[in-house]
Amino acid sequence: MSHKKVAVEVSRIEQLTPTIKLFEFTPIGAEPLPPFSAGSHITVDMSDELSRSYSLINAPMSPKTYEIAVLLDVQSKGGSAYMHSGITVGTQLTVSEAANFFPLAQEQDSKHILIAGGIGITPFMSYLYELELLGADFELHYCFRDAANAAFIDELKARIGDKLFTYEQSADQRLDVAGLIAKNAGNSHVYVCGPQPLIDDVVANGNNVLGEERTHYELFGEAQSSGGAFEVHFQRSGFSLDVGENMSILQAIEADSRIKVECLCRNGVCGTCETTILEGEADHRDSYLDDEEQEAQETMMVCVSRAKGKRIVLDL
């Protein structure tokens, strides 16, 4: 699956916190940026081997720029380190057109409960524009380690006032997820983006109280793919790679760099890295294929899924 690329220039960089920078991209040439919907992200191409996806934080309607906010991972050897140290105003890059795997339910009569953890606040920045247009009832619950490293707090206080609820871990403030969802049982939708334990808590309570169709989540960062080591053979390219216990097939491909596989999400949700299986069986760990498709063992998502045995052959 291929996505159209857009040539852009970095037109503004703003240090939001000691660890988070805002990047503004302006299109190169006369063609305007395509509009997007709340919750969308773009993939930033940093080199032939390196690309990462980031949520768009600006207004979705008729955008003149794309804006993202990037948290510096102190252990990063790739995306966030490159964005923080290798990008300056004037840098030219390519980005994908916006894609959305975390859309806002377009229900004006429902209440929308937004739950963000840390840098997981980013998709909800664009949500606010659509919620305001809908005139829908909503609350934003924002959890973070400490206020000094939490982006957008002042902006959110000024913009949404008493619809904002903050929880600072260093001040022993904790969000009662179960209590919040129970209090809003009924005609509500709950959305979460943040660290995995927060997502797991919200999804478990949301599915139980509101149902799966009213519980929405987005993973950020790269999903871990761990298990037994195995060999993957690329039939069309004519070579094999060893995939280690704590490495995904996609990571092995990128480290080798002889072939390129596009992947927008790196979490098994978007389907862009879906690859045909020629021999062997996959240990499916994605959220894209349904149960029947996974049982058919015809394709797999190389960003998260692994081989069941010691060897698998793919049509790459």
Automatic annotation (TrEMBL):
<dbReference type="InterPro" id="IPR001041">
    <property type="entry name" value="2Fe-2S_ferredoxin-type"/>
</dbReference>
<dbReference type="GO" id="GO:0016491">
    <property type="term" value="F:oxidoreductase activity"/>
</dbReference>
<dbReference type="GO" id="GO:0051537">
    <property type="term" value="F:2 iron, 2 sulfur cluster binding"/>
</dbReference>
<dbReference type="Pfam" id="PF00111">
    <property type="entry name" value="Fer2"/>
</dbReference>
<feature type="domain" description="FAD-binding FR-type">
    <location>
        <begin position="3"/>
        <end position="105"/>
    </location>
</feature>
<dbReference type="InterPro" id="IPR017927">
    <property type="entry name" value="FAD-bd_FR_type"/>
</dbReference>
<dbReference type="InterPro" id="IPR039261">
    <property type="entry name" value="FNR_nucleotide-bd"/>
</dbReference>
<feature type="domain" description="2Fe-2S ferredoxin-type">
    <location>
        <begin position="230"/>
        <end position="316"/>
    </location>
</feature>
<protein>
    <submittedName>
        <fullName>Oxidoreductase</fullName>
    </submittedName>
</protein>
<dbReference type="InterPro" id="IPR052353">
    <property type="entry name" value="Benzoxazolinone_Detox_Enz"/>
</dbReference>
<dbReference type="InterPro" id="IPR006058">
    <property type="entry name" value="2Fe2S_fd_BS"/>
</dbReference>
<dbReference type="InterPro" id="IPR036010">
    <property type="entry name" value="2Fe-2S_ferredoxin-like_sf"/>
</dbReference>
<dbReference type="InterPro" id="IPR017938">
    <property type="entry name" value="Riboflavin_synthase-like_b-brl"/>
</dbReference>
<dbReference type="InterPro" id="IPR012675">
    <property type="entry name" value="Beta-grasp_dom_sf"/>
</dbReference>
